[in-house]
Amino acid sequence: MSTPSTPAEAFEVLLKGNRRFIDSTCEHPNQDADHRAALVPGQAPFAVLFGCSDSRLAAEIIFDQGLGDLFVVRTAGHVAGPEVLGTIEYGVGQLGAPLVVVLGHDSCGAVTAARQAAVDGTSPQGYIGDLVEKVTPSVLAARAKGLDEVDDIVDVHVERTADMLLQRSPLLAGKVERGECAIAGLSYRLTDGTVRRITGHGPLEV
């Protein structure tokens, strides 16, 4: 299988991999010893995957990819700070990935905690509180649209995260504007393994 070179090709490869995962027809590509050895000199992933740290959201598994295919960044609630933005920029700017995926999921614990904090006016202790604080604007934005269910808030949070990447990163914005990169916002369904497109920026269609 050739490595995708355009945003649309990369997006299509991910969606096809997810379909194999759903259908239990996974090919487990690029996981043999020869491929592992071939990657030693360097890497050229075709997508940056920025997702939630939830243990049920293992990117290479749910998209049926292998070593060297995905440049993965994960935080609880896919919360992005400078380190995350720098890592994503590295994947696109230095490694040449033509696609960035923001991956949320239903029943997200970080979103649930932020929603609860907004309801009762309290926040978890320690750094978890900082994380919840960064998700809270998405809770408030969802409420402004009349949405209060956790999964609806997740969709808003995915959309806002994708928008934020463009707003805060001139590197990403420039590449998307030139058609060299695209950003896709997806939500993963825990029960059946499907991904649903929430938003997108750039050339995602073949």
From TrEMBL:
Enzyme Commission number, as recorded: 4.2.1.1
Keywords: Lyase, Zinc
SMART domains: Pro_CA
This protein's record includes keyword Zinc: yes
The organism's place on the tree of life at top rank: Bacteria
Catalytic activity: hydrogencarbonate + H(+) = CO2 + H2O
Pfam families: Pro_CA
Protein role: Catalyzes the reversible hydration of carbon dioxide to form bicarbonate.
Membership in a protein family: Belongs to the beta-class carbonic anhydrase family.
Name of the protein: carbonic anhydrase
UniProt lineage: Bacteria, Bacillati, Actinomycetota, Actinomycetes, Pseudonocardiales
